[in-house]
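Comment thread on ticket #2218

A.B. wrote:
> Attaching the input chain for the structure job we discussed in standup.
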Amino acid sequence: MRATILKKLYDWSVSPYQFFKANQAWNLETQDLLAYPANTLGSHMGLFLKDNMFQLQEKLENHDVFHVLTNTGITVTDEISMQYYLFGNGKRSIYLFAVLFLGTVLFPEYWNFFISKYKLGKSALPFHQINFQKLLNQPLNRIKSTFLIP
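C.D. wrote:
> Ran it. Output below, let me know if you need it in another format.
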């Protein structure tokens, strides 16, 4: 029930969130990403999307990059934990604060898990503001090591 509430809130909020995002859409499809050389950020993004039967969402592409970089799953609690990670990494947005608040209230039993992700984000160099479209051809391991992402 709790996960359903958050999923419904996400579904209602995604279009307005996309509308107000200032960044440009990448205009790429999963197949475009899968065409990148093996072990690059682009190829890992394509595999993430393919394995989860997702498509890139316009102006929200970095969200999927964050999943790939932080090796975060797609359950509701994984999504909340990733926002804690990004909060630790310095990201600030109304959307992030809303997820942190609702996730903490609805899933208090995950508090220790969320805090561990916050600490991981804090220990990494800030990466949340990077234009990752320009790094799609770079090896994923190089990006992760550059930003101290375990």
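A.B. wrote:
> Thanks. Noting for the ticket: The chain has a mean pLDDT of 91.
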